[in-house]
Structure to design on (161 residues):
């Protein structure tokens, strides 16, 4: 994720995180009937040879049912957890960056506290032009921090440490 994206969509990510927290807290496993229905309407793969009165599809459903239910439930839950962790990590890193950049307190109020420009002007005694300049400077600094972070992660993943 890029700093600009979080600058623009910080509160949308917070809402998504809130919803993910709810979904994980109240995760409901798939209903067995839903799994059977999905498997029934799926297309068979491979050759189709009929050697008995029981259709190939019926046999496949019977054999794969438990594994499919378990896999689907696990995958759904893991996807929610992965997305939650990703957004949490990105928001924490972004908030940490705001604390480290010059004039980060002003940008923190603008983005995290969702203050209006007029409120920031009054609180800090600065003009809109200055707020805009500080925001652009902070964005550049944060982008450099993101580039460094991404480079470190790439080096770590490739074993170059």
């Amino acid at each position: 994720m890029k700093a600009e994206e979080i600058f623009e969509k910080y509160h949308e990510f917070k809402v998504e995180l809130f919803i993910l927290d709810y979904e994980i807290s109240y995760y409901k496993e798939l209903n067995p009937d839903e799994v059977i229905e999905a498997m029934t309407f799926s297309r068979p793969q491979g050759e189709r040879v009929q050697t008995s009165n029981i259709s190939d599809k019926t046999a496949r459903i019977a054999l794969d049912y438990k594994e499919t239910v378990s896999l689907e439930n696990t995958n759904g839950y893991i996807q929610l957890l992965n997305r939650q962790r990703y957004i949490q990590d990105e928001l924490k890193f972004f908030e940490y960056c705001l604390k480290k950049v010059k004039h980060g307190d002003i940008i923190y109020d603008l983005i995290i506290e969702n203050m209006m420009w007029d409120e920031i002007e009054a609180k800090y005694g600065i003009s809109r032009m200055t707020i805009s300049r500080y925001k652009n400077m902070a964005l550049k600094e944060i982008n450099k921090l993101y580039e460094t972070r991404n480079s470190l992660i790439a080096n770590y993943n490739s074993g170059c440490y």
User: Anything to note?
Assistant: The helical segments are 3-25, 32-40, 56-100, 104-111, 117-124, 128-158. Residues 7 and 66 are 45 Å apart (CA to CA).
